[in-house]
């Protein structure tokens, strides 16, 4: 309940613009300015209790308490490591990033690329921080995390061994921005160990909020070199790597000094004239700061003798520093994949730079309600969250000469690194795209059922279902309206996700969700309308006072359902009886009279009919995935969020709903709708309560 309230509070914050780069979310609710001021006033250096200088901040396994890698670790501030520490000295450069014992080369490769774009760097590393003016042992950084920007505070206590930084460090040893940046990223990821292993593209996106494109270099498009040059000119961040065939090959060094399973940055792409012929060159950066390519065009190779001094100067041909040149032909032959993170993001596959239009949605897969799995799971597939995109305008100057609408879809699952400590892997995710039938076009207040999704083929799909943080693909479709269905591959898998759509032209996008509403029909009857036989039975049950208490009501209901073989039930609980009385008790006597009991009996008869209609396998229970349709038939239109709450509250361990839970759920829904309508002002769809009113209503 409290986590749901916190999620709703975050949604309200985003509606107020919090989470943008101009108004970042304060991670762990820590405010940099106020914390620094408190430290300056008290004369104490900041100590971060949220990410303390303790073992648990290092890790749990390879960096755990009994690991040889953490023996002798001492946390020290930069002022204890050198006489004149600098935050940034003469600008942030690639030589400020030297890898330590942590296997986070993927992160360091992205940080190295970041130094080439000072405007982006200033967003991630806010300026004005130092070890001199207003120094209080506190620093802050900003990262994009799953759709929102967060401001992360850290103290400057860093793990060391033998007086040297354990993890990332600068080449000269007195510059600390990169080490503190790494610490901040470890904080949002849960601990330092959670940074081991990853994709450079993940860090690229977290530093920019951009969208990634990935190229397999054995299938490189003919114009990839031009795309690389264009991407670098646009300030995009690029990374590359060599695949490994086994775990033993990870960080194995080839004969020509390339490292397998290691993340490199691509920092340049130029064309030179070698013996009168044009040659395409690519500049690569190893975040280790050493171990360089020893093939053609490497530092000191003979090829450099055959180009002009002007070209050599233009290429910034330098000595051993972890950065090297190689021919483009060698690059696509020796490396396996290239990752490009478009910052604006820009259209790299168009001759004219055009900015994408960006749309994003958050969602959840929850077992029993919205975790429907891929289309292989026909019974539950339509339960997945659904989103619609309407494409009206075709691309300008299409490269293939054919009209169409180009857009990217990125599906990202949340918090994978933070769950490593719990030994939880990433789910296998992907998405399918369907054309919206004519009868549903222009309507976002619908949820497409199996009758729509299973009777047609998907017009497009993600290239794969895979257990990575994000699946992203480029599509080109005719103008029209399309439903995007993100899912895990297997059904019944919990997860939270971010769905992003980038379109070349403006597109109308929204979640496909029913409007939450209720149609409650109650026939007006008088005592004369009640069947005499029913009246006589009620008198026998209620006694002379002609009223039924909640205890008598539960006994009556359980006596009735116990004689039925077509429904399964554990019996009506006292709580359900109290709900029924609260809903139908008109005179606040906490008891039901004849008319109230008659109304209840009519409801239960109707609910029994609906329950049996949706018990498709005649098991006597109803699958929680069928609850949306059953609630609709009963007059309650609920969206995915409400459905998740219903399933969490009323389904059993096998995500089945028995009859007494079904009745209790519908009674509760009717009560909540009526309470809301009674308190709503002028169809505002909002109510306002003070603390006492809220507690009284919630306790009911």
Describe what this molecule looks like in 3D.
This protein is an alpha+beta fold. It folds into four domains: 2-208, no CATH class; 211-342, Cysteine proteinases (Cathepsin B, Chain A, Alpha-Beta Complex), CATH 3.90.70; 357-512, Jelly Rolls; 527-699, Orthogonal Bundle (Recoverin, domain 1). 29% of the residues lie in helices and 20% in strands. It is built from 20 helices and 25 strands. Strands 7-12-8-9-10-11 form a six-stranded antiparallel beta sheet. The protein has a five-stranded antiparallel beta sheet with strand order 17-16-19-14-21, with no helix packed on it. The model is unreliable at 345-354 (pLDDT under 50).
Fold topology:
Blueprint: H1 2-15, E1 25-26, H2 32-42, H3 55-58, E2 74-76, H4 78-81, H5 105-114, H6 118-124, E3 138-145, E4 148-155, E5 158-161, E6 164-165, H7 177-189, H8 200-208, E7 211-216, H9 224-233, E8 237-241, E9 264-274, E10 277-285, H10 309-314, E11 323-327, H11 328-334, E12 337-342, E13 357-365, E14 387-391, E15 405-413, E16 429-435, H12 450-453, E17 460-461, E18 470-477, E19 480-488, E20 495-503, E21 507-511, E22 517-518, H13 532-542, H14 550-561, H15 574-584, H16 594-614, E23 622-623, H17 627-633, E24 636-637, H18 640-650, E25 656-657, H19 659-679, H20 691-699
Parallel strand pairs: 1-4
Antiparallel strand pairs: 2-5, 3-4, 5-6, 7-12, 8-9, 8-12, 9-10, 10-11, 13-20, 14-19, 14-21, 15-18, 15-20, 16-17, 16-19, 22-24, 23-25
Helix pairs in contact: 5-8, 14-15, 15-19, 16-17, 16-19
């Amino acid at each position: 309940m409290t986590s749901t309230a916190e999620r709703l509070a975050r949604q309200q914050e985003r509606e107020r613009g919090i989470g943008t780069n101009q108004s970042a979310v304060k991670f762990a609710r820590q405010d940099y300015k106020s914390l620094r001021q408190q430290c300056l006033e008290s004369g104490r250096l900041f100590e971060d209790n949220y990410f303390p200088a303790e073992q648990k901040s290092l890790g749990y396994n390879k960096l755990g308490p009994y690991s040889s890698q953490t023996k002798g670790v001492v946390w020290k501030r930069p002022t204890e490591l050198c006489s004149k520490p600098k935050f940034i000295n003469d600008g942030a450069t690639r030589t400020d990033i030297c890898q330590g014992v942590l296997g986070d080369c993927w992160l360091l490769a992205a940080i190295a690329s970041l130094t080439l774009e000072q405007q982006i760097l200033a967003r991630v590393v806010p300026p004005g921080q130092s070890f001199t003016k207003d120094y209080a042992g506190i620093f802050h950084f900003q990262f994009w995390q799953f759709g929102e920007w967060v401001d992360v505070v850290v103290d400057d206590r860093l793990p060391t061994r033998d007086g040297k930084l354990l993890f990332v460090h600068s080449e000269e040893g007195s510059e600390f921005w990169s080490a503190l940046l790494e610490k901040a990223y470890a904080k949002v990821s849960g601990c330092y160990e959670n940074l081991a292993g990853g994709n450079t593209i993940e860090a690229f996106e977290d530093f920019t909020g951009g969208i990634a494109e990935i190229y397999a270099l054995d299938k490189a498009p003919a114009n990839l070199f031009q795309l690389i040059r264009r991407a670098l000119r646009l300030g995009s961040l690029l990374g590359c790597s060599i695949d490994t065939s086994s775990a033993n090959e990870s960080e194995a060094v080839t004969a020509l000094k390339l490292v397998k399973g290691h993340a490199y940055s691509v920092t340049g792409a130029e064309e030179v004239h070698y013996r009168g012929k044009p040659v395409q060159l690519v500049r690569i950066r190893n975040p280790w700061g050493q171990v360089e390519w020893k093939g053609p065009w490497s530092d000191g190779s003979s090829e450099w003798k055959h180009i002009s001094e002007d070209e050599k100067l233009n290429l910034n041909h330098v000595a051993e520093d972890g950065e090297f040149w190689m021919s483009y032909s060698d690059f696509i032959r020796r490396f396996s994949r290239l990752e490009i993170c478009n910052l604006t993001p820009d259209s790299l596959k168009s001759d004219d730079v055009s900015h994408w239009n960006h749309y994003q949605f958050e969602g959840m897969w929850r077992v029993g309600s919205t975790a429907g799995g891929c289309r292989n799971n026909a019974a539950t597939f339509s339960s997945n969250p659904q989103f619609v995109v309407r494409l009206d305008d075709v691309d300008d100057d299409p490269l293939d000469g054919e009209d169409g609408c180009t857009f990217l879809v990125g599906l990202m699952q949340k918090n994978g690194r933070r769950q490593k400590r719990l030994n939880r892997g990433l789910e296998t995710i992907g998405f399918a795209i369907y054309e919206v039938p004519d009868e549903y076009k222009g309507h976002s207040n619908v949820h497409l059922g199996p009758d729509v999704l299973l009777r047609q083929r998907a017009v497009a799909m993600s290239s794969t279902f895979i257990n990575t943080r994000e699946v992203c693909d480029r599509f080109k479709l005719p103008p029209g309206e399309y439903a995007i269905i993100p899912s895990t591959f297997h059904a019944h898998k919990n997860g939270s996700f971010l769905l992003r759509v980038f379109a070349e032209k403006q597109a109308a996008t929204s979640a496909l969700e029913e409007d939450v509403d209720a149609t409650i029909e109650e026939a007006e009857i008088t005592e004369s309308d009640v069947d005499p036989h029913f009246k006589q039975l009620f008198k026998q049950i209620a006694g002379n006072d002609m009223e039924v208490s909640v205890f008598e009501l539960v006994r009556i209901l359980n006596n009735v359902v116990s004689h039925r073989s077509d429904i399964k039930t554990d019996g009506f609980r006292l709580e359900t009886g109290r709900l029924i009385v609260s809903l139908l008790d008109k005179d606040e006597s906490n008891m039901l009279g004849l008319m109230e009991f008659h109304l209840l009996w009519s409801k239960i008869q109707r609910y029994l009919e609906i329950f049996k209609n949706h018990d498709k396998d005649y098991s006597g229970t109803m699958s929680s995935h069928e609850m949306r349709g059953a609630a609709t038939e009963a007059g309650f239109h609920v969206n995915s969020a409400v459905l998740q709450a219903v399933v969490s509250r009323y389904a059993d361990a096998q995500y089945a709903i028995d009859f007494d839970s079904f009745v209790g759920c519908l009674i509760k829904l009717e009560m909540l709708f009526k309470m809301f309508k009674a308190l709503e002002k002028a169809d505002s769809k909002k109510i306002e309560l003070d603390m006492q009113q809220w507690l009284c209503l919630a306790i009911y």
